[in-house]
């Protein structure tokens, strides 16, 4: 056994920069990774999915251009689309490897598990350190369904290895992955059916977000099946799913996107006193400390909101804490987005969430058809909503559904980080004609101005 300064388990989005920084400071750092360097985000998450959606949404927008008087002949070279996705993934992955190597991190390509207090074994290597950081992420949670096991179903792991476009795609799950990848393949040409066990898509969002997305997906030709479960799966070259309402659906491909489970099974945490919650996530306190001193956990495995920028920010905060700064993980404004078309850009609380916390809150909503830019570009789906505290006038949250709202929502992120009031937004003079000019217009609804609120509308 060797003694080192720090051990990082998992090359996730927080673990890599932390290992690099510590190594650059001259510490002896060992990083264990059992799979490809860069974790879910680079290998089977954000990077390949967004490169894939760049192609898919280009097709969607080309088809939609007919309403502008333009007709395109769309010819999808699926194999070229996926080759490009894989080459971007490869280049990101190589970049990570070089970064770790040049910083002097000792990378061990093996599955790691605890073999004693702050002692970790992976492959032939056993190391002990005063500092251990767990950044092992999550994997697909596969439901137990009669006949599913052993069939060649897709998850986000093998989706990006597809070489041919499946003529028909069945998707289980109406969350982020099911909607992004389902709409993506539909736009590239697969006849797609999405099976949802509840009564709406993205069920953590407000109902009108779900309705807007459902309408947009239907316009892409996607079949939506609500309030049904998959009871049986048969695969004989083709997948046949029997649903709880008796209906049968068939497809050449089945994507299972029904949630995630933490990668903690292999860790043998009992050997070092790290406790897990009832679902297997690592329990941490406000400062990322597990129940074992000297061992920290960051990112998805610590049940942080499962986004790359959160894992990255966990690293920045943990680094501050390790350097003696008085930081916690709780005082941050977190946003996220769904990269469907329309996109859903979100930050902070919804009206219902604010009211449940006892805040006297109010929400205003501006439909996208009140924004000149949207009319000029014939963009029909969406709305902008802001939630404010009526006592303090502070902005509490925003939901933006529409064109590239993942970009636009940063206006709210910054305003909220600055603890700004809605009056600041109301006073702002945004450029005409932009989607962004809808934001002060939204704020002006709070002073009672009638719609339309944008110039030329
Ligand atoms: C399809 C998809 C699309 C996504 N799109 C987005 C997006 O657009 N934007 C966004 O912000 N987020 C997105 N996410 C979420 C994002 O990928 C994760 O939140 C992000 O990767 C953070 O992960 P992490 O740092 O916790 O660990 P991960 O990136 O999951 O990395 C964990 C690493 O630990 C390794 N590991 C696990 N156990 C062990 C062990 N015992 N020993 C050694 N190594 C181990 C794993 O192999 C993995 O490489 C997406 C996720 C998916 C699945
Ligand atoms: N744009 C992004 O930032 C992005 C994109 C993809 C994934 N992610 C991250 O990855 C996480 C996981 O995504 P996900 O889509 O797997 O999970 P999710 O939790 O978003 O959605 C899973 C869906 O599957 C449904 N479901 C569960 N069991 C089912 C069953 N047996 N049959 C049918 N439906 C079932 C759930 O009701 C839910 O709607 C997300 O929560 C997110 O944090 C982020």
Automatic annotation (TrEMBL):
Residues 337-440 form the Pyridine nucleotide-disulphide oxidoreductase dimerisation domain. The active site is at 432 (proton acceptor). Its cofactor is FAD. Disulfide bonds join 41-46. Binds 1 FAD per subunit. Keywords: FAD, Flavoprotein, NAD, Nucleotide-binding. Residues 5-312 form the FAD/NAD(P)-binding domain. NAD(+) binds at residues 173-180, 259. It holds the Pfam family Pyr_redox_dim. It comes from the Bacteria. GO terms for molecular function: flavin adenine dinucleotide binding; NAD(P)H dehydrogenase (quinone) activity. InterPro entries: FAD/NAD-bd_sf (IPR036188), FAD/NAD-binding_dom (IPR023753), FAD/NAD-linked_Rdtase_dimer_sf (IPR016156), Pyr_nuc-diS_OxRdtase (IPR001100), Pyr_nucl-diS_OxRdtase_dimer (IPR004099). The keyword Aminoacyl-tRNA synthetase does not apply. The keyword NAD applies. Gene3D superfamilies: 3.30.390.30, FAD/NAD(P)-binding domain. FAD binds at residues 50, 300. Belongs to the class-I pyridine nucleotide-disulfide oxidoreductase family. This is FAD-dependent oxidoreductase.
């Amino acid at each position: 056994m060797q003694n080192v300064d720090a051990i990082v388990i998992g090359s996730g989005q927080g673990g890599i920069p932390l290992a690099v920084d510590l190594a650059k400071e001259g510490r002896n750092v060992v990083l264990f990774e059992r799979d490809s360097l860069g974790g879910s985000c680079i290998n089977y998450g954000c990077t390949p999915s967004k490169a894939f959606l760049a192609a898919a949404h280009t097709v969607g927008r080309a088809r939609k251009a007919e309403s502008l008087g333009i007709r395109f002949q769309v010819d999808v070279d699926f194999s070229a689309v996926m080759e490009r996705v894989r080459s971007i993934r490869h280049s990101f992955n190589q970049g990570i490897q070089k970064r770790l190597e040049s910083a002097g991190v000792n990378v061990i390509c093996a599955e790691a598990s605890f073999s004693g207090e702050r002692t970790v074994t992976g492959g032939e290597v056993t190391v002990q350190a005063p500092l251990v950081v767990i950044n092992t992420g999550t994997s697909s949670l596969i439901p137990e369904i009669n006949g599913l096991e052993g069939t060649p179903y897709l998850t986000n792991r093998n989706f990006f290895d597809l070489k041919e476009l499946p003529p028909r795609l069945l998707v289980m799950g109406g969350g982020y992955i099911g909607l992004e990848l389902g709409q993506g393949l539909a736009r590239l040409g697969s006849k797609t059916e999405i099976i949802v066990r509840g009564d709406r898509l993205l069920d953590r969002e407000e109902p009108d977000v779900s309705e807007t997305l459902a309408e947009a997906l239907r316009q892409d030709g996607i079949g939506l099946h609500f309030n049904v479960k998959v009871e049986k799966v048969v695969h004989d070259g083709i997948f046949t799913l029997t649903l709880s309402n008796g209906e049968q659906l068939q497809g050449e491909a089945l994507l299972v996107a029904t949630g995630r489970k933490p990668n903690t099974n292999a860790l043998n945490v009992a050997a070092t006193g790290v406790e897990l919650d009832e679902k297997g996530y690592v329990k941490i306190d406000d400062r990322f400390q597990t129940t074992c001193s000297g061992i920290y956990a960051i990112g998805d495995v610590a049940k942080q909101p499962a986004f790359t920028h959160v894992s990255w920010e966990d690293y920045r905060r943990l680094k501050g804490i390790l350097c003696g700064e008085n930081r916690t993980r709780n005082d941050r404004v977190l946003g996220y987005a769904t990269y469907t078309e329309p996109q859903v850009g979100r930050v902070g609380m919804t009206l219902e969430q604010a009211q449940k916390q006892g805040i006297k809150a109010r929400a205003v909503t501006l439909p996208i058809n009140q924004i000149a830019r949207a009319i000029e570009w014939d963009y029909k789906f969406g709305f902008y909503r802001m939630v404010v505290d009526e006592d303090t006038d502070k902005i509490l949250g925003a939901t933006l559904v529409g064109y590239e709202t993942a970009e636009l929502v940063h206006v709210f992120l910054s305003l909220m980080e600055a603890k700004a009031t809605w009056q600041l937004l109301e006073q702002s003079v945004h450029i005409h004609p932009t989607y962004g000019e809808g934001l002060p217009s939204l704020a002006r609804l709070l002073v009672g101005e009638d719609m339309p609120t944008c110039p030329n509308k």
